[in-house]
Each structure stands twice: as C-alpha cells, then as structure tokens.
Design a protein that fits this description.
single chain, about 120 residues, mainly alpha, 2 domains, 6 helices
Length: about 120
C-alpha cells in the first residue's frame, strides 16, 4: 500500500512540475504585436488619419495594406514616415481611391466663411 501512495505522490509532483514549466514557457514567449502597432510609428498624423479613412471605406484592403507595410517595416525596407499623400497613393494605385472630405472656404475681410454661406449672403443682397 505504501508503494502505491508513493507512486501517487511522485505522479502529482511530476504533474505540478510540468504545469510550472508550461507557465514559465508562456511567460517567456513574446506577445505578438499587431500589424497596426508595427506600422503606426511610421505614420505621420495625416497619414494615420488617411489610413483610418481607408479602413472605414475599404476594411479588407486596408487590413491587407497594413499587413504588407508591417512586413516592410520588419524587413527594414520602410524607414521614413508615411504621410497622407503616400497612403492615398498606395490605395489609388491599388484601384481604391480614398474619398476625402473637401470644403471650399472664402476669406474676406478677416472672416472665414464656407462657400455655401457666401452664396446665401449674395442671394439675400
């Protein structure tokens, strides 16, 4: 009977040690960074905004582009920051032009007015 108890204790201890080894292994593994986290430092503020617009308009294409840009960063082929024009050009060349908000403003006598406000004022006169 003592032999069986001893065997059980040894098995329990072995299981405990295996669990500890697995936990230590998981701690040592580096958490994978997302492609977005890899690319973000290589974007200017305007580039980040343009990429966000692209994500909302073409989510699958944007995901693909970000993955490919992340690969370029990891290979060391992308060194400079990308601005809005660069991001727009990438999507445009792929056949997915990003629609951007366009506003026409008029500066007159130190005041800035939208074109619609300006036209309304001219109609009233």
């Amino acid at each position: 009977m003592e032999d069986k108890d001893l065997e059980l204790l040894i098995k329990r201890k072995m299981l405990e040690l295996q669990k500890q080894a697995l936990l230590e292994e998981k701690k040592k593994e580096k958490p994978k960074r997302s492609p977005w986290d890899i690319v973000k430092p290589y974007l200017t503020e305007s580039g980040e905004e343009m990429l966000s617009r692209a994500k909302s308009q073409y989510p699958k294409v944007a995901e693909y582009v970000v993955r490919e840009l992340a690969k370029l960063v990891l290979m060391g082929r992308l060194r400079e920051k990308l601005d809005a024009e660069d991001i727009y050009a990438i999507f445009y060349n792929l056949g997915f032009p990003i629609r951007v908000e366009t506003r026409i403003v008029v500066k007159r006598k130190g005041k800035v007015k939208s074109i619609s406000e300006m036209l309304r004022e001219e109609e009233e006169d």
